[in-house]
Amino acid sequence: MLATNSERLEQIVQHRVSLFVPCFVDQLVPEVAVDTVKILRRVGYQVDFPEAQTCCGQPAFNTGYWDDARPCAEMFLRVFKHADVVVCPSGSCTTMVRSFYPELLSSSPLRADAIALGRRTFELSEFLVKLAGVTDVGATFPHTVTYHASCHGLRELQLRDQPLQLLRKVNGLTLIEMSRFDECCGFGGTFAAKFESISVAMGDSKAETVAATGAEFVTAIDSSCLLHLQGILGKRNAPARTIHLASILAQEKT
Amino acid sequence: MQQTENSSRDRILERIRAGLRAPAPEPAETSPDRVIFESINNPLQRFQQECAANLTECVLTADTMASALQLAKVLESLPAGEVFVQEDPSLRSLIELAGSSRPIRWSSQGAPSEASQATVTLAETLIAQTGS
Amino acid sequence: MSATAAQRFLQDAAVKSADLVHREIILHGLESYDAAVLRGRARFKDWEAARRRCQEIKWEAVNHLDRYLLQFEERVIAHGGHVFWAANGEEACNYIKNLASRQGVRTVVKSKSMVTEEIHLSPALEKAGIKVWETDLGEFIVQLRNEPPYHIVTPAMHLNRGQISELFREKLGEDIHGDDPTELVAAARRKLRRAFFAAEMGISGANFLVADSGLIALSTNEGNGRLCTSVPRIHVAVTGIEKVIPRLEDLAYLWPVLATSGTGQPITTYSTLIGGPRKPGEPDGPDEFHVVLLDNGRSKLLADAEQREVLHCIRCGACLNICPVFRHIGGHSYGTTYQGPIGSVLTPHLRGISDFQHLSYASSLCGACTSVCPVKIDLHHHLLHNRRNAARAGTTKLSERIMFRVWRYIILHPRIYALTGWLARRTLRLLYGLGLAGSIVDPMRVWNRRRSAVPLPSESFRTRWRKGLATN
């Protein structure tokens, strides 16, 4: 799924990326997107935010309402049509564009555009490590941190090491591995509401493995998992706090 | 032999054939030269290793006499009761050599009884990969 | 019915997911399973290549199902066996019941078979006055408890030794002290030995039907399968039509891959090939050998080219074991014969999408199942396809359909989206300021009831972008 060499060269010459901000990041945790902008600029990229973007359509798609998701996908393709490279601080929404748009638009004239845009769309850590070729983004975060591997990033995009590579280069940061770091936190979109009790039980298990590490922070590449986990940790008055990978990488020495 | 009454047979086959008319997507491309199992350089050694892992006692013996002695040792360790033995000339002579006091029931005499303590058979092949 | 199955699932899942003793037992059992499987996979030089090989074998078999079933049938008959084709569970049960009554069968011993669970064979036989003994230890335990198997491979996974010891004391009248596994197994063995030798009929499933040689392949770990299929006068193997494989040598891959995924073993302890009744001069084996080939909805699934590969399943249980939903709600909550991800994909096909579509939603779509499936079934995407099919068929809730239509309108109009977001955050902040988060008036209450409230920033990202962040 990597960009071809020519694409890569083009974007490196231009050093310009378009930002895709998932709707819940835009509305609920805007600082994650602000931090993403900071990091991208710090490593030398100009950032563009096409303001006509809203949502990639994943909530409807995952609930089975493909006919409602499809026009959202088509709008997304129009909004990012001229973007050389799209960067998104979410593995899940990147998955929607790269892995699911081609299937959602399988009988649409836009299918080829969807495949092409999918190849130009990257999750933040993936973009930094694979495309920009940086692992040290000059961040400082003197805390203990444990990493949760969000499902879509891990299993649909095969992002295993990129977030960890970035975290290992953060000044002062101590990484503690949690057991079953790759087990789902229980968010799962509408699953979290439709099956509240299962979702919360899964979150509880995750909160326990987080607590067992004794880390001050739990991080991930997806705000959706972190919002759910934050809710669970908050209800338990657990000491650990959630923080998006982008918000760690954006921290500078004060 | 009488035919089995099969009123649904043709209907099921017809449904299968109709169902298969739409082709399913084929599995993603494979490279046939990928090696699935490690090659085994020393099959006997591997067989013994696997036996140990399977909690199977595997004893190598030098000749028939040693085999008979080993067999006698195993048979004597069992609780009282008959031993069921595969009807075979080599096992006949081996059991005779072992000189066990156990009651023996040969497979030619019919099925084993409920109280049979052990079965002695030959093995046609030993499988190194699994210790089977 | 439709509301009942879904409602029962919600209730049972809620109870089980809060049951910490249950969670402890399951996690403890699965911890050793996880370790064994990791060791097992490491025995392969290329585990991924093995999965692909098995996928190809099953693909070939399922996509030429008629040809291989006919070949299998021909060879079984040539060996002196009978083959019966059953369109549904009733036909299968009736065939076996009639056979039993013709032959004066009063006692049946069964080795583990999920297909016989699927068609409710044991209750059908018992109703006809036949005593049925489950001889797999786990099945024996759940039979004593009068409950269905908890897990397709490990039927009594949900019980610990103490609970089993208590059960045996109560139901077997055995004088058991403590919960030493050896003693428990010995108690079960005493009962079952007698049953094996009393039974006139043995019933087994089949892990694979080998077309080119007319053999059935049976994998068991306790040796009970061999006793069931060789001691009684009659052996009946009940199996789904999708279990056929083309060639004997395919087992060289399927056997180790099934065992590795199922238990972490290099190969199942008793891997048996059965090729018909006893022939003259053979010391053991049944006088009669019957194979019951069951359709029961499988040919309908076959017709769905997109999901046809669900029939590749070899029932190893790996998708259940890794599934975080299964780990939390356990096997019984599903209310189905086949639990976990494979059950959620399969059951709507076998028992109707309207009654069992809720299972397609009872997943976070994390994809862990797909990552371990030894025949590479795209399980979590099929759950997604089931959801799409349900929405398309119009069997989803009207309120949900309306909600997504409104949502779509909002998403397609960026200004309305921004305004709605701003309004919603304002309103919720006001509400939460009054301490009403999670209360009945909170539109986010399913989220906020058991999680602390979501953050509600005063400005969205797009507002901050416009207020100065835009300058590079």
Describe the protein's architecture and organization.
The complex is a heterotrimer of chains A (254), B (132) and C (472). Chain A has 254 residues and is an alpha/beta fold. Chain A has helices at 5-14, 23-28, 30-42, 58-63, 66-79, 91-104, 111-120, 124-131, 151-156, 162-168, 191-194, 196-213, 223-235, 245-249; strands spanning 16-19, 46-48, 86-88, 121-123, 144-147, 174-175, 217-220, 241-244. Chain A has two domains: 5-131, Glutathione S-transferase Yfyf (Class Pi), Chain A, domain 2 (Up-down Bundle); 144-249, Rossmann fold (3-Layer(aba) Sandwich), CATH 3.40.50. Chain A has 14 helices and eight strands. Chain A is globular and about 50 Å long. Chain B has helices spanning 9-19, 43-53, 64-76, 89-98, and strands at 83-85, 104-106, 118-120. By secondary structure, chain B is mostly helical. Chain B is built from four helices and three strands. Chain B is 34% helix and 7% strand. Chain C contains 24 helices and ten strands. In chain C, a hairpin with a 4-residue loop joins strand 5 (208-210) and strand 6 (215-220). The radius of gyration of chain C is 26 Å and the shape is elongated. The model of chain C has no long low-confidence stretch (mean pLDDT 95). Chains in contact: A-C, B-C. Chains A and C meet through helix 2, helix 3, helix 4, helix 5 and helix 9 of A and helix 1, helix 15, helix 19, helix 20 and helix 21 of C.
SSE pattern of chain B, N- to C-terminal: HHHEHEE
The class by helix and strand makeup of chain B works out as: mainly alpha
Percentage of residues assigned to helices of chain B: 25-40%
Overall pLDDT of chain C? 95
Largest sheet of chain B: 3 strands, parallel
The assigned structural class of chain C equals alpha/beta
Architecture of one domain in chain C, CATH level 2? Answer: 3-Layer(aba) Sandwich
In what range is the share of β-strand residues of chain B? Answer: 5-15%
Offer a concise description of the structure.
Helix content of chain B is 34%, strand content 7%.
Layout of SSEs?
The complex is a heterotrimer of chains A (254), B (132) and C (472).
Chain A: H1 5-14, E1 16-19, H2 23-28, H3 30-42, E2 46-48, H4 58-63, H5 66-79, E3 86-88, H6 91-104, H7 111-120, E4 121-123, H8 124-131, E5 144-147, H9 151-156, H10 162-168, E6 174-175, H11 191-194, H12 196-213, E7 217-220, H13 223-235, E8 241-244, H14 245-249
Parallel strand pairs in A: 1-2, 1-3, 3-4, 5-6, 5-7, 7-8
Helix pairs in contact in A: 6-7, 8-10, 12-13
Chain B: H1 9-19, H2 43-53, H3 64-76, E1 83-85, H4 89-98, E2 104-106, E3 118-120
Chain C: H1 2-17, H2 20-42, H3 47-62, H4 65-78, E1 82-86, H5 89-102, E2 107-110, H6 114-118, H7 121-127, E3 131-134, H8 137-144, H9 161-172, H10 181-198, E4 201-204, E5 208-210, E6 215-220, H11 224-230, E7 234-240, E8 244-245, H12 251-262, E9 270-274, E10 288-294, H13 298-302, H14 318-322, H15 324-329, H16 340-351, H17 353-356, H18 358-361, H19 368-372, H20 379-393, H21 398-411, H22 414-433, H23 445-448, H24 461-469
Helix pairs in contact in C: 9-10, 16-20
